[in-house]
Specification:
Blueprint: H1 2-47, H2 61-114, E1 118-123, E2 129-132, H3 135-140, H4 144-149, H5 153-156, H6 160-172, E3 178-185, E4 191-202, E5 208-217, H7 219-269, H8 275-306, E6 315-316, H9 319-334, E7 338-346, E8 357-358, H10 360-376, E9 382-390, E10 394-400, H11 433-443, E11 447-453, E12 457-465
Parallel strand pairs: 7-9
Antiparallel strand pairs: 1-2, 1-5, 3-4, 4-5, 6-8, 9-10, 10-12, 11-12
Helix pairs in contact: 7-8, 8-11, 9-10, 10-11
Bound molecules: adenosine-5'-triphosphate (ATP) and magnesium ion (MG).
Adenosine-5'-triphosphate binds next to helix 10 and helix 11.
Length: 467
């Protein structure tokens, strides 16, 4: 019984101890596994896409670190997603830009390869051809490859007479746009007119790094232009002929009538006429013949001018002596009604040291015409001033009269052949003098100007380089 009692007391102790240990073991297990389970649970949540997770662990350091690690990972994932989205965006816009570029390249290629004009792109520094459109083969009749391998081969085709001009236009406009017209010779000898327009292309620093251009075959246009010009010239010549016939017949009639009348008079009454009257008729005949001769001379010179055959033969000339001779001669013909004054201001030698170099024959045409006009268009008589001013570079001549003047609206047409002003009345003339003057001045590379006031007078100024 005692043994039994002891036995049963031990039994209960064992039971109690066992239970206590079990509880303790459970507590220890729970303490250790709880955070692990919490982490496992949180990982499961995260795996399922739930990012709002709170890891319920003990507040010890290890658990907190774990929790912070998870938060950092979540943040990193967020950052990665954001930059991924950004990359996606950039990729899409890059792809779109590439597509737009491809489309515009396609459009450019379609345009460049289907137009009849030759389109080209050249490297500014190396002159290398970066692009040449297929029309080059049509227009130049040479293949594009030959141009890629020898970028200057297109120049070989330029007509020898146009090459120097074309090259100098290119050289003068290295940094600017230009338009060049020249002829090319195709391999079979056909000549084509080209209009080449070229433009500089600048980089974002504003430096020229390429040139682009369009070369157009303008042969047909040129031919049409030439035909039009030839027709216009023909029309002009025929008009000049008619004008000339009209004016010459009119201008010839007066002196011829004078000659005829004086001859008749001398023939019929010569024996009875006093010597003095006879002489007057002879003088009339002589001056009419002179006049006819002058008209013929003008016509011949004008003919040469029109044909571009008026020669320019410059030689050293004493301008003061030349002007004095001319004035003396014209004063003699003009009579006492007129007073021709010659004034000279030669700062730089016109007579002695370094003589100017000019064509005396042409100078005679210029100043005989201008002085004769000054006399003719001053019917009341008066003073005519002939001035010569010479400096180191040019000679300036001024012819000033006090005559009828020139209507302002007619000044522009003054140098046109056969033109006569509306106020000339009965004063004779063919309208050729000033056309000849202008041509002779141009042959000297000089200039002519006119100032005039109706009823007051006219001043012609001629400036000629000393040569
Ligand atoms: P010609 O061929 O005989 O010289 P023209 O004198 O009529 O004939 P231009 O010398 O060419 O011909 O002159 C053209 C026109 O200009 C003249 O008809 C005249 O109307 C006008 N003109 C020229 N010089 C003067 C001047 N000094 N004063 C007024 N009008 C002038
Ligand atoms: Mg005249």
């Amino acid at each position: 019984m005692e043994v039994e009692a002891l036995y049963s007391g031990e039994y209960y102790w064992n039971m109690i101890l066992g239970s206590v240990f079990t509880v303790l073991a459970w507590l220890v297990a729970v303490t250790i596994t709880h955070p692990m389970l919490a982490i496992a649970k949180a990982i499961n949540y995260i795996r399922r896409g739930n990012r709002q997770v709170n890891i319920e662990t003990n507040k010890d350091n290890r658990s907190q670190s774990l929790s912070q690690l998870v938060s950092a990972l979540i943040q990193q994932e967020k950052n990665l997603k954001a930059s991924n989205a950004q990359l996606q965006l950039e990729l899409t816009s890059k792809l779109m830009a590439q597509e737009m570029l491809r489309q515009s390249e396609e459009k450019f290629r379609q345009l460049a390869e289907n137009i009849q004009e030759v389109f080209w792109i050249r490297d500014f520094r190396t002159h290398e051809i970066l692009y040449i459109s297929p029309a080059y083969e049509q227009v130049w009749q040479r293949n594009c490859e030959s141009l890629y391998s020898n970028p200057n081969s297109w120049l070989d085709a330029i007509h020898p007479e146009d090459r120097e001009r074309a090259l100098s236009i290119m050289k003068e406009n290295i940094y600017s746009a230009y338009q060049n017209e020249y002829r090319i010779i195709q391999p079979d000898g056909t000549i084509c007119w080209i209009c080449d327009s070229s433009f500089p292309v600048k980089n974002h620093h504003g430096q020229v790094y390429r040139r682009v251009g369009i070369a157009q075959d303008i042969t047909e246009r040129k031919q049409a232009e030439e035909t039009r010009l030839a027709l216009a010239k023909e029309r002009e010549i025929s008009q000049l002929k008619s004008q000339f016939i009209a004016i010459a017949s009119h201008e010839f009639r007066t002196p011829l009538t004078t000659i005829l009348l004086s001859c008749d008079f001398l023939q019929n009454y010569g024996d009875q006429l006093p010597e003095e009257k006879k002489q007057r008729h002879f003088d009339k005949i002589k001056s009419s013949v002179k006049h006819l001769n002058q008209i013929l001379e003008d016509v011949l010179v004008f003919g040469k001018t029109e044909a571009g055959k008026l020669n320019f033969e410059p030689a050293p000339i004493d301008l003061i002596s030349f002007c004095l001779d001319l004035v003396e001669q014209l004063q003699l013909n003009a009579g006492e009604k007129y007073k021709i004054d010659f004034v000279e201001q030669c700062v730089y030698g016109c007579a002695r040291e370094e003589l100017p170099v000019m064509d005396e024959k042409l100078l005679r045409h210029i100043f005989t015409n201008l002085l004769s006009n000054a006399i003719k268009y001053s019917p009341q008589g008066g003073r005519i001033k002939f001035e010569l001013i010479c400096d180191g570079t040019s000679a300036i001549f001024k012819i000033q009269d006090e005559g009828i003047g020139i209507p302002e609206e007619e000044v522009d047409k003054l140098f046109t052949s056969f033109f006569r002003c509306s106020n000339t009345g009965h004063l004779p003339g063919t309208g050729l003098g000033l056309a000849i003057v202008k041509n002779a001045v141009e042959l000297h590379k000089g200039q002519i100007a006119v100032e005039s006031q109706l009823g007051v007078g006219t001043t012609f100024t001629v400036i000629l380089p000393r040569g």
